Amino acid sequence: MLPANNIQMEMAAEIRILQRKVERLETLESGCLVIVEDADFSSQPSTVTFSNIPQTHKHLWLWITVTADEQGGTTLEMTFNNDTDPTYDWERMENSSLFAGASDTKIKLGGTTTDEWVAHEVNIFDYAGNAPSSRRVIWKGARTRGAPPCVECTIIQGGGLYDELGAITSIQISSTADGYEAGNSRMTLYALC
């Protein structure tokens, strides 16, 4: 049996651990991570727009999953505030292949070909324009073909910027073709503290 001091010290340590857990939960409950909008495709639109973006958070986090249909696939492109001026700079690696666009009219996230599935996680920093710099964007993802174990798996990483100082109030995700399965493709936009 432990002496009373050791038992009290262990209980105090456990209480500190529980207090930290409660503090983390309080942070989550205060709106630190909020779903802004969830788009589940029931048809094949060429563009999905997130337009109700609150300007009360610090960063945006976008999750994208797209399943290509048997007709060919699609490439996903992203713009902000309906801006198609040459205000985007980006680079993307797909395994060992490099793709880039300087002074481009959009950011090309990558996409799918026939019977592939792609998932992207996109981070948009300081979207509300509180820092005196361009809006920074990074993303990572994977594209797979075939049933597990995958016949082919491509790792996608990219980064870039939107060379405008104003707040991002809307995001447009466009597909170059209607080559994805409705009902198996969705996007969720989160706002972060």
CA-atom Rg in angstroms = 21 Å
CATH arch. level architecture: Sandwich
**Would you state the CATH class?**
Mainly Beta
Strand line-up in the sheet with most strands: 1-12-3-8-9-10-5-6
Instruction: Indicate the overall shape.
Output: globular
CATH topology: Jelly Rolls
Structural class: alpha+beta
Estimate what percentage of residues fall within beta strands.
over 45%
Mean pLDDT across all amino acids: 81
Helix count equals 1
Main β sheet profile: 8 strands, antiparallel
Share of helix, binned: 10-25%
- The tally of domains stands at 1
| Elements, N to C (H/E) | HEEEEEEEEEEEE
As residue ranges, the low-confidence spans are: none
- What's the total count of β strands? 12
Distance between the termini: 46 Å
Q: What does the model show?
A:
- The protein has 193 residues and is an alpha+beta fold.
- It has a single domain (32-192), classed as Jelly Rolls (Sandwich), CATH 2.60.120.
- It has 1 helix and 12 strands.
- The strands form 2 sheets. It has an 8-stranded antiparallel beta sheet. A 4-stranded antiparallel beta sheet has the order 2-11-4-7, with no helix packed on it.
- A hairpin with a 2-residue loop joins strand 5 (88-94) and strand 6 (97-104).
- The chain starts with a helix and ends with a strand.
